[in-house]
Amino acid sequence: MSDIDHAQAAVAPTRLAIFTDFDGTLVEIAETPDDVDVPLSLPEALQRAARELDSAFAVLTGREIGDIDRYLAPLVLPVAGAHGTQRRRADGTMEPVDTAATEAAEEIARAIGPLVEAHPQLLVEAKDGAVALHFRQAPELEAACRMAMEEAVRHVANFTLVPGKMVFEARPRGVSKGTALRAFMAEEPFLGRTPIFIGDDTTDEDGFIAAQDLGGVGIKLGEGDTAARMRIANVASVHALIQGLGDIAAQGRADETDLDDRDTGSDRDVH
To answer: What are the angstrom distances between the C-alpha of 243 and each of 16, 44, 49, 90, 178?
Structure first.
């Protein structure tokens, strides 16, 4: 039985809520964030899965919400951006970003500016409430990037540094993909469902833990130590898994409809 079959079998009897990372999970990691290649079929495939799950499908990403909207257009999903600093609910309303977090992120971005100016191969993502410093094109600068980010974070209140794949992320302390997942799970249409979170990086670990604490499953793409209880091989397998879980939800809906029809028929027979 494949990893996909195992994952589908593990959750088949339940009402699901699917949460997924974006880079490295829904799409392959690119040299720079702007170089990401989104398959033309992906927005439609995600839209179908979200429809079958009654809209209980969300993206939890380090990117800003606007980036996800741009890449998945015309699809608009519930999204937690900047590692949970930003959040758009299923009803389309936005959770306001804390002003202090915005100002702190701006200060961090300014502090690491000289390093980035000295090394143009580095890339800063200055987000509303978070900052990422990418060194994928200059791996030899990892130590310098870590030192610069640590120093910058040290001078602002309530921020923490999280390493990722060829990136260092500064985000507000106490905010993560895990807190975002828990917030979604307290709201419709996620409320009362079993969460599945799929991700590939260390920044996804909080999401795995949250999903499993709530009775669901964390699914780690690729190798490496993880809190996730299941693994999946690659991005193509993630696409197949999401399609399969959508099929399971659709079949469950069809079975419920057949049962309701039989019950209605029995009532007519009795009368």
So the answer is: 13, 11, 6, 20, 24
